[in-house]
Design goal:
The complex is a heterotrimer of chains A (about 575), B (about 325) and C (about 300).
Chain A (H helix, E strand, L loop, with lengths): L1 H45 L1 H4 L15 E6 L14 H10 L4 E3 L6 E3 L2 E6 L5 E6 L12 H12 L19 H5 L11 E5 L2 E5 L7 H4 L31 E7 L3 E6 L13 E6 L3 H9 L5 E3 L10 H7 L4 E14 L9 H9 L3 H9 L4 E2 L9 E2 L2 E2 H4 L10 H15 L5 E7 L2 H18 L2 E7 L1 H9 L5 E7 L6 H4 L16 H12 L3 H18 L2 E13 L3 E2 L2 E2 L5 E2 L4 E2 L3
Parallel strand pairs in A: 1-10, 16-17, 16-18
Antiparallel strand pairs in A: 2-3, 4-5, 5-7, 6-7, 8-9, 9-10, 11-19, 12-18, 12-19, 13-19, 14-15, 20-23, 21-22
Helix pairs in contact in A: 1-8, 9-12, 16-17
Chain B lengths: L25 H4 L8 H12 L1 H19 L35 H37 L1 H16 L2 H11 L4 H28 L2 H8 L4 H37 L11 H8 L7 H29 L6
Chain C lengths: L1 H27 L14 H10 L6 H13 L14 H36 L4 H15 L2 H15 L12 H30 L2 H9 L3 H13 L1 H25 L4 H11 L2 H29 L12
The chains are: A alpha+beta (about 575), B mainly alpha (about 325), C mainly alpha (about 300).
Chain lengths: ~575, ~325, ~300
């Protein structure tokens, strides 16, 4: 017994050292492949957005077995379009359903989907949709009634299951009133079935992005058979769909599969036969499986690559790594109702005194873009990206000396000689790292004392709503492709305006933009509004998000839209 | 009596006059003269000859010393970030390399060991105190008190312990103290049963009967006889509950319910390193090595103690 | 005997009740709720969601409702997995966990006993040393380290087994190895020490003297008596494998109940957390109950009253 134990210590050591060596070996390999590949590296990432959106050319040879293997890092919480509210459900529902419009993968514009064509009234308030001859997967025709039925499900105040995204339909006339019970007659809502193939929609305000909204899952139609079956979305058999794929297998927590729907009107565009999704929420495991060839794709938005490994895989797989900007912004917000952050100069000084690029290069590691405005790239307005028309560099820049002077000025105005405050974030390693770095920079560059405070998600949000914070982290992603989704947040008393900010001039600009159908006018109002927002520095932008993923070279046709939503319906495999 | 103690030079002649009768002291005749410690000395001797246990003891002591001293040996603290020097391999500057915050892994490993040991030792101590008091009362008084208290502890015990811990930490923010408290909420029961069992067994032994019949009161019985004699199993249980608490904390770290950053335990360091350990092996190897050595040394030393304190098991 | 079993049974029920109540009230103490999100849900919709999950009722009323439903075998509806019964989720994911768990328990018992026996028979020889090294390593290295190492070396580096998934027999190897490392260690140690004791017992010497062959000595006497302590470990081992599977399922991407549990903790899906806790609680308590009963049945020496477990 005694002898055996000294021996086992030895063996224990040997095993551990063995592991170290194995680990080092892996490391060297990576370094080598990285070096070899470096010349092509930059190019691959630059046009990454386009590399895998290309259509099949004559040279491409399709693989005989069109079975895709993709991982989901979380299980889709629902297959009911009216209940969904997350990116995984979005990815799967996009395969199973189609709305009145579809989003073009390259231009981001709405193109005909279930609706073959449409007419818009001169005032931009009435849309008349003409449906194509499409079929549900059980053979029934898709009719205008199916849309009216689905939308009523969303807005029904007495629905057994309330739809959390009901407000996405508030653009329809009287939709909000019906949803809150003020109007009890659904015929008052701006949805009218003219005949089986014609649907008339009336809006409250002219909404230039309404056609884009129609491709969003809350607006998908559902088959009328779901009416009597509260649990239809929890079983594979009871799901009747109108999209390119049908759900054929689903094992809770383990896997799900979709198979090509032969009855889809554009079935000839669909090359994949089956997509098998595994459900594993470990980025490390997902990456290993991808490297092992068990997956055809890894990473966002439905999978995960561990952040720390992003720079490594970027070098290791330059031809497979894809980075794309998505319309989301990461920022810190100030509670402007309490001293010292009532003073815009102090807020601005803080925003000027951090170095965004080093944070991205060393911490977030995903090639994010430094942000100096609130509306991220990718958001369209008046025919082009908003950010291309209005450079965010005009608002402010990183300037430590200038920040010092501005801070001194601001402190003097407030009668303070020193600044110290608390920065709150919700418990998460990623947020913590950024908070640590920003606090370090503030301390080093401005001599400001910052206390970091992490809070549980529920507490964090509650404190933000109650303005019980000084500076807090935040992020915002687009609900639709229009600057409005960002800028209407900060109107006085806005539901998501948890800074206490109130500026009548700003409110007026947003109100004007909302009631105008003229894109040029809207663009002008948005530009002015964002300038006010940044001059007041209510929020301090840090970076615009990117999506990072790995795609095997033989997997083509996977697209991400402006918001980072993935569309797998046109994906296919090349021979490999 | 005092005369006997005189240091007498060898050449001195003794005569009968040098002796006197001291008589019989009735009261002291029955007093136990032999130091009761001898059993401990015996155990210590047995332990000392157990080379494996002694090696484990040395490793334990080294780990404890390092956990106390090492963080002061380098010019970094466990939470000093250097975000421009992240994930650097071991060097003369950073003996164990740096982590994803650019923090020194050497300091963090030993701070982590400190935290893990605090969790283990504190949990063991709380278990010890509650367990001895509760078990002592059960065992000593017996009867109805025992029945009721025992029922209560049995019910508590049959609730799966890790589930309770997870529940508690989901609800209360995990911090060093909530983790220790959560770990001890059912941890003491085992100890109380051991104490109870020992005391019940000892109570029926002859020497207790003797002491009792000589009029010893309950305080003397409990503190002079019962507890000292059940010390062996108590110490063994304490030693073995340290590593199990350390492991439980590591498991909680895996669920994200361990000590919260920037504070680290060995378990949370290993868990943080899991996503990229093939690229940054030093971030996993060093804490894993220390936790394994800690586990090994406490377990082996505990086994050695058991062998030493319980001669019946001697082979 | 019957009284003892009845007594244990009543204990089990009371414990279960305490567990359910504790779980319920702890869950209620959590700040925030599953509907808190960065994009605020309008107040009226939120109120309706609350009403739907009975979150708008007084806590005590919710508690009574919950208890009533549990008696009916209804653990409620998940808040994140819309419209899905917690019992359905548990029963669907349990099959993977059960398969994995049963294989792991069998493997652990067989390998553990064989290792322990070999170690005892070849006491203080190479095989003893190797067995005990493995045994102690199993105790000293956290299971998530073992799992990650196995995954990297055997699946990624040497490509022997798949990295993740739970489709075919090959998917069993790695998780079972990681899951059984510690139970094998404990069983081997238990078997080894009790076998050593038995091997030196007088009745074995008698059997040898009678001229019984080593195989029948081993199977009739040594094994039967030497394996006794292993039975006491079946309860704790079940607990070990269940908690272990939480880690292992997560790392190897197995859609079992453990993975569901971790996910529910992360998303604060109360009904699932509570449901799985109660489910785990029942399994563990039943395992312990059966162990107790089995032990009493097998070993007549055991005193019925005041029995304690380690």
């Amino acid at each position: 017994m005694k002898k055996s134990k000294s021996l086992l210590l030895m063996i224990a050591l040997v095993l551990v050292i063995g592991t170290v060596l194995a680990g080092c070996g892996g490391n060297n390999n990576n370094a080598n492949s990285g070096n070899n590949a470096s010349p092509t590296n930059a190019a691959a990432t630059d046009n990454a957005g386009n590399t895998n959106t290309g259509n099949a050319t004559g040279e491409e040879k399709l693989a005989a077995d069109q079975t895709l293997k993709i991982n989901l890092s979380s299980e889709p919480p629902t297959f009911d379009p009216q209940q969904a509210q997350d990116s995984t459900s979005n990815a799967i529902l996009k395969l199973m359903y189609e709305g009145l419009t579809r989003q073009n993968a390259e231009t981001g514009q709405a193109e005909p989907g279930m609706a073959e064509s449409w007419d818009v009234s001169a005032d931009g308030l009435v849309y008349t949709f003409h449906l194509r001859d499409a079929k549900w997967s059980n053979g029934d025709a898709v009719t205008a009634n199916d849309f009216a039925f689905a939308w009523q499900r969303v807005l029904d105040p007495n629905a057994e299951q309330a739809a959390p995204y009901a407000y996405q339909l508030y653009y329809l006339k009287n939709a909000e009133a019906y949803n809150t019970g003020e109007v009890t007659d659904f015929s008052q809502v701006g949805v009218k079935v003219i005949d089986d193939k014609t649907l008339e929609v009336t809006l409250t305000n002219p909404t230039p992005y309404f056609l884009g909204l129609l491709s969003f899952y809350t607006y998908y139609p559902v088959h009328s058979s779901v009416k009597d079956n509260a649990k239809w979305a929890t079983s594979v058999d009871s799901q009747i769909v109108n999209g390119p794929f049908t759900l054929t297998e689903w094992t809770t927590g383990q896997s799900l599969s979709v198979t090509k729907n032969p009855g889809y009107y554009a079935a000839d565009e669909i090359k994949a036969q089956t997509i098998n999704f595994s459900i594993v929420n470990s980025g490390a495991t997902e990456l290993l499986s991808y490297k092992n060839g068990e997956l055809d794709r890894a990473g966002g938005p439905i999978g995960e690559i561990p952040t720390e490994q992003l720079p490594i895989v970027e070098k290791e797989f330059p031809n497979e790594f894809t980075r794309k900007g998505i319309a989301s912004v990461y920022y810190y917000q100030f509670n402007v109702t309490e001293k010292p952050f009532t003073n815009a100069k102090i807020r601005k000084a803080l925003a000027m005194a951090i170095e965004r690029q080093p944070i991205i290069d060393n911490i977030t590691l995903g090639g994010q873009l430094p942000a100096f405005g609130f509306v991220p790239p990718g958001i369209q307005s008046n025919g082009d990206e908003f950010r291309n028309q209005v450079a965010d560099s005009q608002y402010f820049g990183e300037d430590i000396e200038g920040a010092k002077a501005l801070l001194a000025e601001g402190l003097k105005e407030e009668g303070l000689d020193k600044l110290s405050f608390t920065l709150s974030y919700n418990t998460s390693e990623g947020h913590q790292k950024i908070a640590v770095a920003v606090a370090d920079m503030w301390k080093k560059n401005l001599g400001v004392e910052v206390k970091l405070e992490n809070k549980e998600w529920g507490v964090f949000l509650e404190d933000k709503t109650n303005l019980n914070y000084q500076v807090a982290r935040a992020g915002w992603s687009a609900d639709y492709n229009d600057p409005m989704t960002y800028l209407d947040m900060w109107v006085t008393g806005g539901g998501n305006n948890d800074t206490g900010y109130s500026n009548p001039e700003y409110d007026q600009l947003i109100k004007d933009a909302k009631s105008s159908a003229d894109n040029a006018v809207r663009q002008e109002k948005f530009t002015a509004a964002e300038k006010i927002l940044m001059d007041d520095m209510v929020i301090m932008p840090i970076y615009y998000y990117t999506n990072n993923s790995l795609t095997k070279e033989y997997l083509k046709g996977v697209t991400l839209d402006f918001s980072g939503a993935i569309d797998l319906s046109r994906a296919y495999l090349l021979e490999h | 009596m005092a005369a006997n103690n005189n240091t007498v030079a060898p050449q001195v002649e003794l005569s009968p006059d040098d002796f006197r009768t001291v008589g019989i002291n009735e009261r002291e005749a029955e007093t136990i003269q032999r130091e009761s410690l001898s059993a401990w000395q015996d155990a210590w001797y047995r332990l000392r000859t157990n080379k494996m246990a002694m090696a484990a003891l040395i490793v334990m002591v080294i780990i404890i010393i390092m956990a106390i001293v090492a963080p002061h040996l380098v010019p970094y603290t466990y939470d000093s970030n250097d975000l421009m020097n992240t994930n650097k391999p071991p060097s003369s500057e950073h003996f164990f390399g740096t982590d994803d915050f650019g923090r020194d892994v050497f300091v963090r490993t030993w701070m982590g060991a400190r935290i893990s040991l605090i969790v283990g030792l504190a949990a063991a101590c709380i278990d010890l105190i509650i367990g001895v008091v509760y078990g002592g009362i059960m065992g000593f008084f017996g009867g109805r008190i025992d029945t009721v208290m025992n029922k209560f502890s049995e019910i508590l015990y049959s609730i799966p312990y890790l589930l309770v811990v997870i529940m508690l930490l989901v609800v209360f923010e995990p911090s060093l103290w909530t983790i220790i408290l959560a770990l001890t909420i059912t941890g003491w029961i085992n100890m109380s049963w051991i104490v109870r069992g020992e005391i019940m067994q000892l109570k029926s032994r002859e020497f207790i009967l003797a002491s009792r019949s000589m009029g010893a009161d309950w305080k003397r019985l409990l503190f002079k006889h019962l507890l000292p004699n059940s010390m062996g199993p108590i110490i063994v249980t304490v030693t073995l509950s340290v590593p199990s608490a350390i492991f439980s904390e590591a498991f909680l770290s895996f669920l994200g319910l361990g000590v919260q950053a920037p504070v680290a335990s060995l378990g949370s360091m290993i868990n943080d390193s899991l996503t990229g350990w093939m690229y940054y092996p030093w971030r996993m190897i060093f804490p894993a090595l220390v936790i394994s050595l800690t586990m090994l040394s406490f377990n082996i030393f505990g086994d050695g103690l058991r062998d030493a304190l319980d001669p019946k098991l001697k082979k | 005997m019957v009284r003892y079993i009845l007594n244990r049974f009543v204990h089990m029920i009371v414990s279960l009740f305490v567990l359910i109540s504790a779980t319920f009230f702890l869950m209620k103490a959590i700040p925030g709720d599953p509907f808190t999100s960065e994009k605020k849900i309008p107040e009226q919709i939120l109120q309706r969601l609350y009403a739907q999950y009975n979150l708008d009722k007084p806590v005590f009323e919710q508690y009574v409702l919950y208890l009533k439903n549990i008696v009916k075998g209804d653990l409620g509806i998940s808040m994140k997995m819309l419209n899905q019964e917690v019992t359905d989720i548990i029963s669907q994911t349990f099959s993977s966990s059960l398969k994995l768990g049963v294989v792991a328990i069998i493997v652990a018992i067989i390998i553990g006993i064989v290792l322990g026996m070999l170690a005892a028979l070849y006491h203080r020889r190479l095989i003893d040393n190797v067995a005990m090294v493995l045994a102690v390593l199993g105790i000293a290295v956290p299971s998530f380290v073992v799992a990650s190492l196995l995954q990297y070396l055997l699946a990624y580096h040497w490509k022997i087994f798949p990295v993740m998934g739970f489709k075919g027999p090959m998917n069993y190897f790695l998780p079972v190895m990681a899951l059984t490392a510690s139970p094998i260690a404990v069983i081997a140690r238990l078997t080894r020490s009790s076998m050593l004791e038995v091997l030196h017992a007088d009745y074995i010497k008698t059997a040898k003297a009678k001229g019984l062959g080593w195989f029948s000595i081993l199977s009739r006497h040594v094994l039967r008596n030497g394996v006794m302590p292993v039975i006491t470990y079946v309860g704790p081992m079940t607990a070990n494998i269940i908690t272990g599977s939480v880690v292992i399922e997560q790392i190897f991407g197995i859609g079992g109940i453990g993975k569901q549990f971790v996910q529910a903790i992360n998303t604060r899906d109360y009904p699932i957390i509570m449901g799985i806790t109660i489910f785990y609680g029942v399994i563990l308590m039943v395992a312990r109950f059966l162990t107790d009963v089995a032990y009493v049945a097998v070993d007549p020496r055991i005193k019925l009253a005041g029995r304690k477990e380690g």
